[in-house]
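Support request from a user on the community tier.

User writes: "When I paste my C-alpha cells into the form, the page sometimes reloads and wipes my input. The last time it worked, I copied everything first. Here is what I submitted, just in case something in the input itself triggers the reload:"
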C-alpha cells in the first residue's frame, strides 16, 4: 500500500495540457483520492468516456461495457484508434492470452499515437492499460477526445479568440465556452458545470443550434431541472444527432464532471438539423447580431459606402427594418440584401451625404435589436483607397496558408486619409459568412491587422475595402492547402546539437517537412546570448527539405527557433552552447 501511495504522489499531472483530477476533490489528499475507485469524478468520466468510445466503435461493429477492463488486451483499443485515425494496424495479436501479447498490442497503439498522430502521452505506458489502472485509462481516453473531437480546426460559426502573450491560442475549455456564449447571448455561462445544472442552458443551446426546437427554454423554471434537461437533450439526440454521452440526471448533478460536459458539448458545433424536425416558431429580436464598419462610432466618411451585417439565425424568421437618421433628422435610404447563408444574414449599406452624428435604428419583427440605435459620426472628405497598401501571407496567392491555421495581413492607411478598413473572405464555395475576419488596430496611427482562419482547401478571395471602396488589386486570390501539423516536421544535423560548436564554425542543419502535411512557410531565428539575431541562411533543396547554415560570432548560449506553418517543429526551440574560438593547428597539403 505504501508503494502505491508513493507512486501516485509522484505522478502529479498526467498531461501537460490535458488530464488532471476534478476540482471537486481538491480538498481530499491526493493519495486518498486516487485510491478511491468509486470517486464521483471517475464514475462520471468512466460513463461518459465509455459512451464516447461506443459511438465510434459502432463503425467497427463492436462495443465496450467497461473501458477499465476491456482495453487491457489492446484489441478494442486498437479498433477505436483505427476508427478515429482512419488507419489500419497490420500486425495485431488477435487472440492475446499471454501478458506479453497484450503488452505488444497496447505498446503498438501508444507508439502510433505519439509518432504518427503527434499526441503527447505523459506518465503512461502499456503496463498501465494492461493492468487496468482506471485513472490512467481515463487519462488516455481524455487525450483521444481532446485530439479527435475537441482540438480540431475552427468550428463553423466559431469566432476568433485572441492569443496570449506567448502566442498560444485558447484552451479547449475556453473554445467551448466562447462558442456556447456566442450562440446564446441571452444566457451567458461562466463554466461547464454548475451553470448547466438547471437544464435551462442546454435548452438555450439546442434552440440556438436549431431555432424552434426548444423555443420556450426562456420560460423554463429552475425547479424542474430534470424535465428541462431531458426535453432539450432528447430533442438534440433525435433531431440534431447529438448522442447523450452524458445523461440528463448527470448534467443536473451539482458535482457533474467538467470533462464529461466538454465531451458532450463538443458535439454541438457540427450538429446538423434533420429534415422533418418539429420546429415551433418564436421570434426573439434580442438574439440579433449587428456588426460592421457602418455601425462603428468613427471612421465613416461623406460619400463613402458604409457597410454592416445583421445576423438573424437565432432570432427566428421575421422582417428586418433599418432606419438611418441624419444629424438633421432626415432619413436616407439603406440597401438591404438577404443572403441565403447558414447564419441567415443581411448585408446592409448606405451612403451618407452630409457630416454629423447619424442614428441607425435596426428593428426585427418591429422591435429594436440589441444596441440599437447605433450612433455613427460621419466625417468630411473620405480617404483615398488607392493610397492603401497591404502586405502579409493572408493576401498572398502562395503564402503557405493552410486549413485550420490563422493567417494575417496588415493594411497601411496613414497616407490615405479618413476611413475604416473592412474585409470579406469568400471561401471556395462562394460563402461570405463562413469565415469572419478579425480587424484590430492597436495604434490609431498604425496599420490595421486583419486575421482570419481558413476552414477548407482551395482558392479563397479576400476583398479589402477602405472608406467603403475596394483598395488596389482587391479581391486577392489566396491558395489554401490542407491542414498542416508543424509538430511532425523535424530537424537533423550538427547545427541543432547543444554542444560541439565553436565561434567561427560554419554549421548546417536540415529541416524535413514531409510528415507535417499541408503547405507552410519555414521560419528560422537564431538568438545570440545578448538577444540580438545571428544571420541564418535558408535554402530549399527539395520539395520537403530545407538546408540552414549559420556561423556564430560570439560564445555563450544561443536559442534556435524553427517554425513551420506558424508552429514550432518537433523539439524546438533548440538550446545551443557555443564555445570560444579555437584556432586549429591542423594543416592540409600535398
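"...and here is what came back when it finally went through:"
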Amino acid at each position: 500500500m505504501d508503494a502505491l501511495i508513493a507512486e501516485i504522489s509522484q505522478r502529479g499531472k498526467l498531461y501537460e495540457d490535458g488530464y488532471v483530477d476534478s476540482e471537486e476533490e481538491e480538498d481530499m489528499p491526493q493519495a486518498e483520492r486516487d485510491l478511491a475507485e468509486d470517486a464521483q469524478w471517475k464514475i462520471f468520466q468512466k460513463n461518459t468516456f465509455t459512451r464516447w468510445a461506443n459511438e465510434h466503435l459502432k463503425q467497427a461493429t463492436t462495443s465496450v461495457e467497461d473501458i477499465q477492463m476491456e482495453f487491457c488486451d489492446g484489441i478494442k483499443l486498437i479498433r477505436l484508434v483505427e476508427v478515429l485515425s482512419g488507419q489500419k494496424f497490420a500486425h495485431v495479436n488477435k487472440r492475446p492470452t499471454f501478458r506479453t501479447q497484450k503488452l505488444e498490442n497496447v505498446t503498438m497503439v501508444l507508439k502510433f499515437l505519439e509518432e504518427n498522430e503527434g499526441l503527447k502521452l505523459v506518465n503512461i505506458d502499456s503496463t498501465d492499460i494492461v493492468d487496468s489502472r482506471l485513472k490512467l485509462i481515463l487519462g488516455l481516453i481524455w487525450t483521444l477526445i481532446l485530439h479527435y473531437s475537441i482540438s480540431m480546426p475552427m468550428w463553423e460559426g466559431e469566432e476568433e479568440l485572441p492569443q496570449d502573450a506567448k502566442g498560444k491560442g485558447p484552451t479547449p475549455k475556453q473554445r467551448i465556452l466562447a462558442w456556447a456564449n456566442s450562440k446564446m447571448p441571452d444566457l451567458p455561462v461562466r463554466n461547464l458545470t454548475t451553470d448547466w445544472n438547471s437544464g435551462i442552458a442546454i435548452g438555450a443551446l439546442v434552440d440556438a443550434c436549431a431555432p424552434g426546437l426548444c423555443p420556450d427554454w426562456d420560460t423554463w423554471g429552475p425547479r424542474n431541472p430534470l424535465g428541462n434537461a431531458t426535453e432539450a437533450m432528447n430533442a438534440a439526440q433525435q433531431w440534431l444527432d447529438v448522442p447523450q454521452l452524458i445523461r440528463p440526471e448527470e448534467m443536473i448533478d451539482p458535482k457533474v464532471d467538467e470533462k464529461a460536459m466538454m465531451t458532450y458539448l463538443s458535439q454541438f458545433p457540427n450538429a446538423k438539423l434533420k429534415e422533418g424536425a418539429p420546429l415551433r416558431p418564436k421570434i426573439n429580436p434580442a438574439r440579433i447580431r449587428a456588426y460592421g464598419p457602418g455601425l462603428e462610432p468613427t471612421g465613416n466618411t461623406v460619400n463613402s459606402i458604409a457597410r454592416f451585417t445583421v445576423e438573424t439565425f437565432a432570432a427566428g424568421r421575421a422582417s428586418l427594418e433599418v432606419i438611418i437618421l441624419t444629424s438633421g433628422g432626415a432619413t436616407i435610404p439603406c440597401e438591404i440584401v438577404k443572403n441565403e447563408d447558414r447564419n441567415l444574414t443581411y448585408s446592409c449599406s448606405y451612403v451618407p451625404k452630409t457630416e454629423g452624428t447619424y442614428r441607425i435604428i435596426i428593428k426585427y419583427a418591429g422591435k429594436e435589436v440589441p444596441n440599437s440605435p447605433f450612433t455613427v459620426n460621419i466625417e468630411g472628405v473620405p480617404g483615398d483607397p488607392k493610397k492603401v497598401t497591404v502586405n502579409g501571407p493572408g493576401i498572398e496567392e502562395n503564402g503557405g496558408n493552410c486549413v485550420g491555421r490563422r493567417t494575417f495581413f496588415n493594411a497601411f492607411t496613414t497616407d490615405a486619409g479618413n476611413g475604416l478598413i473592412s474585409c470579406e473572405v469568400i471561401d471556395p464555395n462562394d460563402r461570405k459568412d463562413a469565415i469572419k475576419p478579425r480587424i484590430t488596430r492597436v495604434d490609431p496611427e498604425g496599420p490595421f491587422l486583419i486575421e482570419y482562419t481558413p476552414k477548407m482547401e482551395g482558392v479563397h478571395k479576400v476583398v479589402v475595402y477602405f472608406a467603403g471602396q475596394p483598395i488596389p488589386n482587391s479581391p486577392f486570390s489566396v491558395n489554401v492547402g490542407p491542414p498542416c501539423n508543424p509538430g511532425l516536421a523535424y530537424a537533423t544535423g550538427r547545427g541543432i546539437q547543444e554542444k560541439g560548436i565553436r565561434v567561427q564554425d560554419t554549421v548546417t542543419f536540415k529541416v524535413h517537412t514531409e510528415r507535417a502535411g499541408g503547405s507552410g512557410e519555414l521560419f528560422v531565428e537564431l538568438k545570440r546570448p545578448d538577444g540580438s539575431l545571428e544571420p541564418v541562411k535558408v535554402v530549399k533543396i527539395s520539395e520537403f527539405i530545407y538546408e540552414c547554415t549559420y556561423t556564430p560570432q560570439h560564445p555563450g548560449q544561443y536559442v534556435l527557433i524553427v517554425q513551420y506553418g506558424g508552429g514550432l517543429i518537433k523539439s524546438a526551440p533548440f538550446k545551443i552552447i557555443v564555445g570560444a574560438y579555437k584556432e586549429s593547428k591542423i594543416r592540409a597539403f600535398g
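Agent notes: The reload is a front-end session timeout and is unrelated to the input. The chain has 13 helices and 29 strands. The first strand starts at residue 289 and ends at 291. Escalated to web team.
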